[in-house]
Amino acid sequence: MLRPERWGTPGSLVPAVATGLLLWSTFYSISKPNPRRHVTIPLAAAFTIIAALNARNFSSNDVVNSIFARFVIIYFSHCLFIFGFVSSSELEDERKRWLITRSMRPRGAHSTVIDDEQLPKNMPGCSDYVFSYKFLLNPLCFGTKWEVPLREDRGDGGGSLANFAHKSRNITSASHLKQTSFPSKTSDKTLQKPKSRTMFILWRLFTLFCRYLALCIYFDRDLFFWMPGGIGENRDDYVLGGNHFFFKSLPCLLVGRCSNGAHMHAQAVRATVLRLHWVLIQVVPDYLTLSSYHDILAIIGVAIGVDSPSEWPPMYGSIIEAYTVRRFWSSFWHLLIYRSFSTFSRSILSILGVSRRHPISRYTHNILVFFLSGIMHEIVPWLLTPDQCMKCGCHHQIWRFVLQVFGMMAEGAVQFVWSKLERWLFGPGVVQVRLRIFLLHTV
Questions:
Q1: What is the pTM (predicted TM-score) of this model?
Q2: Per residue in 214-236, is it b (16+ CB within 10 Å) or e — as a string?
Q3: Residue 300 lies in domain
C-alpha cells in the first residue's frame, strides 16, 4: 500500500544511514583478524534499533518497508551469530579456507595450487571487505562449516553450489589441494564447466520479468479483492451464536448438506474460500517479492564479478515438494533465519539443561525456532502500523508460527500410524498368506 503523505526524503535518510552504518561497522569488524570483534554487537544493535524504528519512513510503500525491516532484523541476527557464537579461531579458519578456495579459481577449467608458506596472511585493500561481504551477507552460511543443509538442489546453481561448498568447507590448508579430490586440473564438472555468466543473467532477467507480471496481476484491485459476496468480512465469517462458525459447519460442508439450509452452506463455502484467501496472501506476495529482490541482487553480484552464478541458487525450492507441513518449511520456504535462530534455540535449551538426546529436545527446539520467527514477524507490523496493532492487535503471528510445529507433530503421528497399518496390511509375506487363506476357503 502506498502512503505518500507520510513519506519524505529527510525521514527516509534516517533508516538508510543507520543501515549503512550497520553494514560498515560489521564489515569492518571482521575484515581483518580482530579478537575483540564482540564489542561490535552493542554498536550493531543500536544501528539496528534506529533503522527498525524508522522503517515506516524508509519509503512510501508498506511492502518495501516491511521487507526492509525484516532484512535489518535478519541481518542483525546473523551478525549476532557470527560475533557471539563463532570463535576467533573458527573465523580465521574460514578466512583461510576462503583464501585457498579463492586461489582455486572455480570459474575456470584450471585451478591454481599454492603452498601454505605462499598463502598471504591477509588480503590488502578492498579484498578484506570482499571476505566480509561473503561471510556476513550469507545467512545460509554456504561454503562454511555452519552451512544450512538443503533437502534438495534448488534449481539452477543449487547443485554446483552444494558440491563446491562441500569441498571448500573441508579444506584446512593449501596442501589439501594436492590430494586426489582437489587436483590441479580438476575433473569435477561443477568446477570445470560453471554456468555461463551471460546465460545466468539472461535467465534471471527473464524470471524477474515473469515475477513482475505476476505481482502486477496479484496486486490488481479487481482480482486481488475478489471474494464470493464481496470482500467485506462479517461476523459470520468467524463466529455464529458464540461458537466457532467455520469448524462447526465444516462437517456439513464436507458432506454437502447442512441442516440449517442453503444459507448455512453458502456461509460455509464463503468461510472456506476466505481462509484459502488468507493462506495465499501469506505466501504469494512474500514469494514473489523476496524472489524478485533476490534475483536483482544476484544479477548485480554476478554482473560486476564479485560472485559466481553457483553462489546464487534460488531462494525458494519447488512448491511441488511442499506436500507436508515439514517439507513446506524445509524444502520450499526460504531458510534465511534458520542458522541464527537455530543456534539461539540450542543455546536456550543448553541453559535450561535440556539435552539434545532427550526425546522432547527436537520438538522443543523447533518450537523455539518458530517462536523466534513469530516474534520477528510480530515486530514488523508493530513498527509499520502501530496504531492498527493497538486497535486490532498483531499477536496472531506468534501463534501462527508456533502452531506449525504442532502441525508437524500431528502429521508425524499420522505417518507413523499409517506406516504401521501399511506394514500390517501389505507387509512382506502378508499378502501371500492372505491369498493362500482365501484360496483355501474358496476351494
A1: 0.77
A2: ebeebeeeeebeeeeeeeeeeeb
A3: 195-307
